[in-house]
Amino acid sequence: MTASPAAPLSRIALYPGSFDPVTLGHEDVARRTLRVADRVVVAVAHSASQTRQPAFSVEERLEMLREVFSDEPRISCVSFQGLLVDFAEKIGAGFVVRGLRAVSDFEYEFQMAQMNREMRPGVEFLFLMPDAHLSFLSASLVREVARLGGEVDAFVSPAVLRRLRDRFGQADRGGR
Ligand code: PNS
Question: Which end of the chain is more exposed for a tag (fewer CB within 10 A), N or C?
């Protein structure tokens, strides 16, 4: 990554996250990123600050991501250890993409972006909004609803739905 604000950026975008699991909101942001990038690297962080036990291992999350984006050769999915800024530099990413759903996301994202910039002044962050109908969606809500037997078909791709059902059991369609 360049340290000069005037220098053009590489058109490789890094889209990092926990993706536990990947939702339609994440998918929307990754695909939208292709409007401004030639390639998107979706990266599952091993070292995301987890205050809870993840529902899926990093390997399982990666498998789901790869299935979900199997139709799009410009999106690749990897995992990374350590600092985001180091990984961004390693893969030659021009910028880091994060989804912004609502004002409530802003504070955390702003803090993280500024911290990353302190560590690596050349790092650029680009925030993209998912489609409005996905703006309420989060992986944590999907996990909770799935865990409690609710339907999450409208919020995740079939590959993810399958995994959620394997993990948490089939939702009771008799209505609960
Ligand atoms: O989907 P999430 O959990 O909001 O993603 C957070 C993530 C993975 C982007 C963040 O925790 C991260 O960048 N982790 C890598 C370690 C790192 O660089 N931490 C310092 C952040 S300022």
Answer: C
* Domain assignments of the chain as residue spans, ordered by start: 12-168
CATH topology (fold) of 12-168:
Rossmann fold (3.40.50)
Tokens representing residue 98 in the block: 């994060």
Backbone Cα Rg of the chain:
17
Q: Quick one: pLDDT band at residue 4, thresholds 50, 70, 90?
A: low
Q: Which helix (H) or strand (E) holds 80?
A: strand 75-80
Count, residues in the chain: 176
Q: Where are the alpha helices (DSSP H) in 69-157?
A: 84-91, 103-119, 139-147
- The finding on whether 21 has its CB within 6 A of some atom of ligand 1 is no
The residue contributing the CA closest to ligand 1 atom 7 is 17
Q: Report the nearest-CA residue for atom 5 of ligand 1.
A: 17
- Omega before 8 cis (within 30°)? no
To the question of pTM greater than 0.70 for the whole model, the response is yes
